[in-house]
Amino acid sequence: MTQQNEEMTLTEHLSELRKRLIYVLSIFILGLIAGFFVADPVYQYLTKAETAKGFVLHAFSFWDGIGIYMKIAGLFSIIITLPFTVYQLWKFVSPGLRPQERKASLKYVPYVFLLFLVGVAFSYYVVFPMALAFTTTITEKMGLVETYGMKQYFSFLFGIVLPVSLLFELPLLIMFLTGLRILNPIRLRKMRKISYFVLIFIAVVITPPDLISDLLVMIPLLLLYEISVFLSAIVYRKQLAADQEIEARYVRSEDNQHTG
Fold first, then answer.
1. Where are the transmembrane segments (predicted)?
2. CA–CA dist 228, 192 (Å, integer)
3. Does the reported pTM lie above 0.70?
4. DSSP tally for the chain: helices H, then strands E
5. What does the CA dihedral 148, 123, 31, 49 come to, rounded to 10 degrees?
6. Distance, CA of 145 to CA of 69 (rounded, Å)
7. Which of 60, 163, 221, 230 is deepest in the core (most CB within 10 A)?
8. Listed range (14-28, 30-44, 159-173, 242-256) with the worst mean pLDDT
9. Which tens digits make up the pLDDT trace of 86-120?
10. What does 59-70 look like in DSSP terms, one character per residue?
11. Dihedral, CA atoms, 140, 141, 142, 146, nearest 10 degrees?
12. Stretch (H or E) spanning 58
């Protein structure tokens, strides 16, 4: 391959990547527009939920209300865009995959949406109430009057919900990268100590500094990693079996040619 052909190939790859990014951005903008229509019902639900009772939320800026609506619309758009983004990533890398790898990795895309919703539910109904209860208790012990702006409340909420929800995509991400032969269960087992440290650090940072709260978040995260290793092993075994089958076909073909 000449240098000119290599440059053309690189240009084609960059052009394809730009096209995929434009698709993702377009869906994100459409999701953002749709998010503004659901922002008020979501806001009403969140402010009337049990965790928000007892708080009188204030607006300290003319833009606070609009800012909260934009954050809700943004989160809604991320939820909608996430599986589409993964699909576009698959479309970008699929030409370099074998047919069976292409078909297997495509199956992961619908579950991106499902796992993200599970992560949202876990972070909102489990992690967020614990963090809120802890900060409220400390505030009361210090004799302070709780006067919160709506911006601070929702920033605190989204700052917990979004990272934890994304962590729930870990099993699918590992399976996808295994399908692309970037990761494998052997490498994941070697990385277990480092991975555990990172996940424990995340659990400690996003939860109140008490053992029960840490464990309630830490254990699911560690289980997610072990599930990821298990699923990676399944994908990896299928890859090895497919490779052996292809090699066997090649050997049979060579033998037939020599026989002929």
1. 21-46, 66-90, 111-134, 154-182, 194-212, 218-236
2. 11
3. yes
4. 10, 2
5. -50
6. 27
7. 221
8. 242-256
9. 888 878 877 776 676 677 667 777 788 888 888 89
10. --STTHHHHHHH
11. -10
12. strand 57-58
